[in-house]
Every structure is written in structure tokens, then in C-alpha cells.
Amino acid sequence: MSRPVVRVTRRLPGEVEAALAAEFRVELNASDTPLTGPELHRALRESDAVLCTVTDRLAADVIGAPPVRCRLLANFGVGYNHIDLAAARAAGIAVSTTPGVLTDATADLTMGLILAVARRMGEGERLLRRGGWSGWTPTQLLGRDVSGARLGIIGFGRIGQAVARRAGAGFGMEVRFWTPRADAHAALAVGAEAAESVDALLPWADFVSLHCPATPETHHLIDARRLGLMRREAFLINTARGDVVDEVALVKALQERTIAGAALDVYQGEPRVPAELRGLENAVLLPHLGSATREARTAMGLRALENLWAFFAGGDLPDRVA
Ligand code: DGY
Predict the structure, then answer these.
(1) Which one of 270, 276, 306, 320 is the catalytic residue?
(2) Is 320 tagged catalytic?
(3) C-alpha to C-alpha distance for 100 and 79, rounded to whole angstroms
(4) In this predicted model, what pLDDT tens digit does every residue of 198-211 receive, in sequence order?
């Protein structure tokens, strides 16, 4: 049997590309720029599988009507809001993701963002780099303590729980969370307490960290009204998806200082980041680095490979979402 053709939409760590090439007839995207809609459409018609990433917008118009040759979209990443699952199913395409292997990297980065925004690290670095630091003073760039503060987590899957563990055990933070699923077992394991609702969690927390997927239900979950429920001294952290926050309302809250600050790794129209946000000193802004460690990105690639391998071997698709 000839080896399946796998279109890989972005360059991946070398070890992953080598492992893929050993198993499949791989077509790489040498330019490493996001494929356009028509390019993705063609890839779905010319390949047996597509190994895609968050930068591939696989909407219904791109997937199009059957027949398609592609039988599997093996996503490199755990979030899959860029893929229209109903359209994929209708076209007879299965979809898999890479859960678990990026949990620690993303939770670590979340703690980094909490520290960065609370301790004004970005402001300090900008001050120093522009030659504006004239020496230590007792009142310069005072932030707030992270140790012992209250952390509200929205979305309590693997990453939310990993953040709770770090915050509780490492920083003595008091942790509450909200999730639409009953997760009492996980809560006990990480010493966190369930909040009754998002609205109950927001006024309580010093830090609000988002870890829910982007779905129609979570679109603009944090809007102007909910930002208004947060305390003036509180910070918003988003390593989930930009779509969960109404960015216009967030800019207004940061400009008017109705909240103290925000630390963001994801944006509504990535890679576009509004100029108003970029101009704010009380915002820490990263370019979607949640899973960006060599270890995590290699493990994600190898996990996508396992899904491809299992699928074409005719077995179960381990990380199937459609
Ligand atoms: C994920 O896995 O969802 C990361 O955000 C990269 O897509």
C-alpha cells in the first residue's frame, strides 16, 4: 500500500518533521507562512491528511462540499476553534488534537504573566531599555504581591487545574474556579473551591485567569459588564483564546483603570493587536507563546504523528474531537 500523503501547513521542530517523513509522504510548506483559504481547500483535495495549526482557518467555505480526498485533520494544538467541526464531519473528515502535552508549558507561562503584570516587569524593562532608569528609589514601579492573593480561574480543564496547582502550592494563592462541568474531584485534588458563577467569581478575585475554549457560549464571556464586576485592583490574564474577551471593552477598562491591568497571550484578530492595546503601560502582551517551548512543541508534533499513524493503521483515533 502506498504511503498516505500528509500536507503539513507550517514548519515543525526538526525531530517531528523527520519522524513524519519516515512514516508518510510529507508535503511541507517551505515558506512557513499561513496557507490561504484556496491553498487549504486544494490541500484537502490533494492530500490524504492535513496536519494543521491554529493559523489555518478551516471554515465551512474552505472545507467545501464533498468529495474531498482528505480523511483526517490532525491539528497541532489543543484548541480547535479555527476548524468548523460540522463542516469537517459533513465532508467525511475526522479531526484530532494534541491534548495534555502542552499543559505544563501553558500553565508555566500563565504564572509568568501573572507575575509580569503584578510586578510591572514590562514597564520596568521598557524604562531601562529606553535609558530612563536613573537608579533605585523606594517608590519606583511598585506592584502588588502575588503570594497569598486570590486567583479566579475560568475554565477548569487540564491547563486551569495545572495553574491552580502552581498558584496554590507555589505561591500560597487562594484559588476558586468556575467551569460549566461538575469538576469536584479535580477541585479537591488541587485544593481549589468552585464558584457559583462567573459573576460571583469576578468581584472576589485579585487575578482572573481564562482557561476555557473558544465556543459560541464563551464568545465575549468577559465583556464590558463583567469587566465592571472586577475589582479596580484586579488583573485579567488570558492564555486561552482572544475571542473569549471583548477587546474593545478591555481597552476601555484598562484606559479608564477600572481594572489594574491585563496580561494577554492571545487576541481576537491574531496576529493583529489593536494599537490602543499596544499603547497601554498596564498591559503585558505576548505573541501567543503558551505552548512555545522546544519540549512542548516537539511533543505536540509527535502526538499529531501518533494520531495520523493510528488513523491510517485503522485503529482508534486517540485524540478525536470529530
Ligand atoms: C493550542 O494548542 O491551542 C495553542 O494555543 C496553539 O494552537
Answers:
(1) 270
(2) no
(3) 12
(4) 999 999 999 999 99
